[in-house]
Specification:
The structure is a single chain. This protein is 44% helix and 12% strand. By secondary structure, the chain is α+β, with helices and mostly antiparallel strands. It has a five-stranded mixed β-sheet with strand order 1-2-5-3-4. It starts with a helix and ends in a 15-residue tail after the last strand.
């Protein structure tokens, strides 16, 4: 009976010995999981944390069974910002292609002295000297140049639509007219009359178009010369981006 009891006690002691290698295997699996999880987006902070874990594993630190909680591995929160940046860059590229189309129209029709385009932080700005559109002190688009406004409207057909703002500007010479009391009224009516021709295009959604006027208060050149005043008398067509620099959308109608 004593021999049988000793044999049974020996078997019980042997049956618990598998726990030690099992705990070591789980600890190594944890280390492997950490390496695989962090391999896609490695940064200095993750490397430091991984180094600490390896030191614990291979220097006799706590194993998986004694670990109070899994190590917090920082997640990569930059994917959303990256997508927003990519959307902004793609939209800027689309605006650049629109600029190329407008520049081609200007070159084909020899309008370099009357038109200019510029990519700005607010969008693609198309500037038109008022001399090609209006008589001095008048707000009606000259009949012989209505075709230009109609051609521009074809260049403003976008899918999906973009917000487009038409802005009128004048020089600082006070207006003397029974129709317009100030340069403000003149600049606003010029932008409105130009806008009316643009949205007469059936393929344009007027909901995305607006008009405003600044009179003489936003000059681009000194008003002390005729050349400077001529530059200030202008109509601007601002084609706005769909995606702003901060990643937010700008696809709502004005």
């Amino acid at each position: 009976m004593a021999k049988k009891h000793k044999k049974h006690q020996h078997e019980e002691e042997m049956s618990e010995s598998w726990l030690l290698p099992y705990a070591d295997i789980l600890t190594l699996l944890l280390a492997l999981f950490i390496v695989l999880f962090a391999s896609s987006t490695v940064d200095q902070e993750k490397l430091n944390q991984m180094s600490a874990v390896f030191n614990q594993v291979f220097d006799g630190g706590t194993g998986l069974m004694e670990q109070p909680s899994p190590m917090d591995v920082p997640r990569n929160n930059n994917s959303g910002d990256s997508n927003q940046s990519m959307a902004y860059i793609e939209d800027q590229q689309a605006l650049s292609e629109i600029q190329d189309s407008v520049d081609e129209y200007i070159a084909v029709n020899a309008l370099e002295k009357q038109f200019a385009t510029e990519l700005t932080s607010e969008g693609l700005l198309v500037t038109i000297r008022d001399s090609i559109l209006f008589d001095l002190g008048q707000a009606e688009v000259k009949q012989e140049y209505r075709q230009i406004a109609e051609d521009i409207s074809d260049l403003l057909v976008f899918d999906p639509p973009r917000n487009v703002v038409i802005t009128g500007h004048t020089d600082n010479i006070p207006i003397s007219s029974s129709i317009y009391a100030s340069n403000w009224e003149l600049s606003v009516m010029r932008s409105v009359n130009f806008l009316k021709i643009l949205v007469n295009n059936n393929t344009i959604d007027p909901l995305y178009f607006s008009a405003k006027g600044y009179g003489e208060f936003k000059p681009v050149a000194p008003n002390d010369t005729e050349e400077g005043r001529a530059k200030n008398r202008r109509v601007e067509v601002l084609i706005q981006p769909r995606v702003l620099e901060d990643g937010s959308l700008n696809d709502q109608p004005q």
